Protein backbone atom coordinates (compact mmCIF):
# COMPACT_ATOMS: atom_id res chain seq x y z
CA UNK A 1 0.00 0.00 0.00
CA UNK A 2 1.37 3.42 -0.90
CA UNK A 3 0.73 6.73 0.80
CA UNK A 4 -1.72 7.47 -2.08
CA UNK A 5 -3.99 4.70 -0.72
CA UNK A 6 -3.88 6.06 2.83
CA UNK A 7 -6.37 8.55 4.22
CA UNK A 8 -4.67 12.00 4.36
CA UNK A 9 -5.03 12.11 8.15
CA UNK A 10 -3.41 8.68 8.45
CA UNK A 11 -0.58 9.75 6.14
CA UNK A 12 0.05 12.86 8.26
CA UNK A 13 0.05 10.74 11.42
CA UNK A 14 2.53 8.30 9.84
CA UNK A 15 4.83 11.23 9.00
CA UNK A 16 4.58 12.52 12.59
CA UNK A 17 5.47 9.10 14.01
CA UNK A 18 8.31 8.93 11.49
CA UNK A 19 9.60 12.32 12.62
CA UNK A 20 9.60 11.09 16.22
CA UNK A 21 11.45 7.93 15.18
CA UNK A 22 14.09 10.02 13.41
CA UNK A 23 14.44 12.39 16.39
CA UNK A 24 14.95 9.48 18.78
CA UNK A 25 17.47 7.86 16.44
CA UNK A 26 19.37 11.15 16.27
CA UNK A 27 19.40 11.51 20.08
CA UNK A 28 20.96 8.03 20.16
CA UNK A 29 23.60 9.28 17.67
CA UNK A 30 22.78 6.45 15.25
CA UNK A 31 22.83 6.45 11.47
CA UNK A 32 20.37 4.28 9.56
CA UNK A 33 23.18 1.80 8.87
CA UNK A 34 24.09 1.70 12.57
CA UNK A 35 20.47 0.84 13.44
CA UNK A 36 20.66 -2.03 10.96
CA UNK A 37 23.91 -3.28 12.51
CA UNK A 38 22.82 -2.78 16.13
CA UNK A 39 19.56 -4.64 15.43
CA UNK A 40 21.49 -7.49 13.76
CA UNK A 41 19.56 -6.81 10.57
CA UNK A 42 16.12 -6.92 12.19
CA UNK A 43 15.51 -3.52 10.57
CA UNK A 44 17.24 -2.57 7.36
CA UNK A 45 18.37 0.99 6.73
CA UNK A 46 15.88 1.46 3.84
CA UNK A 47 13.00 0.19 5.98
CA UNK A 48 13.82 2.49 8.90
CA UNK A 49 14.19 5.38 6.44
CA UNK A 50 10.76 4.62 4.97
CA UNK A 51 9.22 4.49 8.46
CA UNK A 52 10.85 7.82 9.28
CA UNK A 53 9.54 9.44 6.09
CA UNK A 54 6.08 8.02 6.76
CA UNK A 55 6.03 6.25 3.39
CA UNK A 56 5.81 2.78 4.89
CA UNK A 57 3.18 1.68 7.37
CA UNK A 58 4.31 0.48 10.78
CA UNK A 59 2.37 -2.35 12.40
CA UNK A 60 1.71 -2.04 16.12
CA UNK A 61 4.05 -4.95 16.78
CA UNK A 62 6.89 -3.30 14.81
CA UNK A 63 6.22 0.07 16.47
CA UNK A 64 6.41 -1.59 19.88
CA UNK A 65 9.61 -3.43 18.91
CA UNK A 66 11.23 -0.20 17.68
CA UNK A 67 10.25 1.61 20.88
CA UNK A 68 11.81 -1.21 22.88
CA UNK A 69 14.96 -1.13 20.72
CA UNK A 70 15.34 2.64 21.24
CA UNK A 71 14.48 2.34 24.93
CA UNK A 72 11.46 4.64 24.88
CA UNK A 73 7.79 4.10 25.75
CA UNK A 74 5.60 3.31 22.75
CA UNK A 75 3.43 6.27 23.78
CA UNK A 76 6.38 8.55 23.06
CA UNK A 77 6.45 7.43 19.42
CA UNK A 78 2.71 7.99 19.15
CA UNK A 79 3.04 11.54 20.46
CA UNK A 80 1.36 10.90 23.79
CA UNK A 81 4.57 11.76 25.67
CA UNK A 82 7.21 14.38 24.87
CA UNK A 83 10.48 13.17 23.39
CA UNK A 84 13.03 12.58 26.11
CA UNK A 85 16.51 13.72 25.18
CA UNK A 86 18.12 13.32 28.57
CA UNK A 87 20.25 10.25 29.20
CA UNK A 88 18.99 7.42 31.39
CA UNK A 89 21.47 8.28 34.10
CA UNK A 90 22.91 11.63 35.14
CA UNK A 91 26.47 10.34 34.76
CA UNK A 92 27.81 6.93 33.78
CA UNK A 93 29.80 5.52 36.68
CA UNK A 94 31.15 2.00 36.22
CA UNK A 95 32.02 -0.50 38.92
CA UNK A 96 35.21 -1.98 37.46
CA UNK A 97 35.29 -4.88 39.91
CA UNK A 98 31.82 -6.02 38.81
CA UNK A 99 32.98 -5.90 35.18
CA UNK A 100 36.07 -7.96 35.96
CA UNK A 101 33.76 -10.70 37.20
CA UNK A 102 31.81 -10.67 33.91
CA UNK A 103 33.41 -12.68 31.07
CA UNK A 104 31.17 -11.02 28.43
CA UNK A 105 32.62 -7.62 29.39
CA UNK A 106 36.19 -8.39 28.29
CA UNK A 107 36.17 -6.01 25.29
CA UNK A 108 34.59 -3.26 27.38
CA UNK A 109 37.20 -3.74 30.10
CA UNK A 110 40.05 -3.42 27.59
CA UNK A 111 38.58 -0.13 26.34
CA UNK A 112 38.03 1.17 29.88
CA UNK A 113 41.61 0.21 30.76
CA UNK A 114 42.83 2.47 27.93
CA UNK A 115 40.82 5.33 29.46
CA UNK A 116 42.37 4.62 32.86
CA UNK A 117 45.86 4.71 31.34
CA UNK A 118 45.12 7.93 29.46
CA UNK A 119 43.77 9.66 32.57
CA UNK A 120 46.28 8.18 35.00
CA UNK A 121 43.32 7.17 37.19
CA UNK A 122 44.38 3.95 38.86
CA UNK A 123 41.92 3.56 41.74
CA UNK A 124 40.76 0.31 40.11
CA UNK A 125 37.28 0.32 41.57
CA UNK A 126 35.17 2.97 39.86
CA UNK A 127 35.45 4.88 36.61
CA UNK A 128 33.36 7.84 35.47
CA UNK A 129 32.77 7.55 31.72
CA UNK A 130 32.32 10.71 29.67
CA UNK A 131 29.76 10.96 26.85
CA UNK A 132 32.44 10.67 24.15
CA UNK A 133 33.88 7.61 25.89
CA UNK A 134 30.43 6.05 26.08
CA UNK A 135 29.85 6.64 22.35
CA UNK A 136 33.24 5.10 21.52
CA UNK A 137 32.45 2.13 23.75
CA UNK A 138 29.13 1.68 21.92
CA UNK A 139 30.88 1.77 18.56
CA UNK A 140 33.36 -0.84 19.76
CA UNK A 141 30.58 -3.13 21.02
CA UNK A 142 28.27 -2.26 18.09
CA UNK A 143 25.39 -1.39 20.41
CA UNK A 144 23.31 1.70 21.12
CA UNK A 145 23.93 3.83 24.22
CA UNK A 146 20.69 2.50 25.65
CA UNK A 147 21.85 -1.09 25.12
CA UNK A 148 25.27 -0.36 26.68
CA UNK A 149 23.58 1.10 29.78
CA UNK A 150 21.31 -1.95 29.89
CA UNK A 151 24.31 -4.30 29.69
CA UNK A 152 26.10 -2.43 32.48
CA UNK A 153 22.98 -2.68 34.65
CA UNK A 154 22.57 -6.38 33.86
CA UNK A 155 26.18 -7.04 34.82
CA UNK A 156 25.77 -5.08 38.06
CA UNK A 157 28.44 -2.65 36.90
CA UNK A 158 26.40 0.56 36.59
CA UNK A 159 26.53 2.79 39.65
CA UNK A 160 23.22 4.65 39.57
CA UNK A 161 23.13 8.30 40.57
CA UNK A 162 20.11 10.50 40.66
CA UNK A 163 20.14 13.75 38.73
CA UNK A 164 20.56 16.58 41.22
CA UNK A 165 18.60 18.97 38.96
Sequence-ordered SSE layout with sheet pairings:
Elements: H1 8-27, H2 32-38, H3 45-53, H4 60-70, H5 74-78, E1 92-95, H6 96-100, H7 106-119, E2 126-129, H8 131-141, H9 145-154, E3 158-159
Antiparallel strand pairs: 1-2, 1-3
Helix pairs in contact: 1-3, 2-3, 7-8
What does this structure look like?
It is elongated and about 60 Å long. The chain has 165 residues and is mainly α. The relative contact order is 0.13. The chain folds into 2 domains: 3-78, Orthogonal Bundle (434 Repressor (Amino-terminal Domain)), CATH 1.10.260.40; 92-159, Arc Repressor Mutant, subunit A, CATH 1.10.10. Helices cover 56% and strands 6% of the residues. It has a 3-stranded antiparallel sheet with strand order 2-1-3. The model is unreliable at 83-89 (pLDDT under 50).
Amino acid sequence: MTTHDIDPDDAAFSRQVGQRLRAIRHTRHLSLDEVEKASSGLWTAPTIGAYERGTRRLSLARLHALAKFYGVPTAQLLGDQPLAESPQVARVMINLQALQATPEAEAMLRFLHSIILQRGDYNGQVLSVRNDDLRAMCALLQVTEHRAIHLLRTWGALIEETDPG
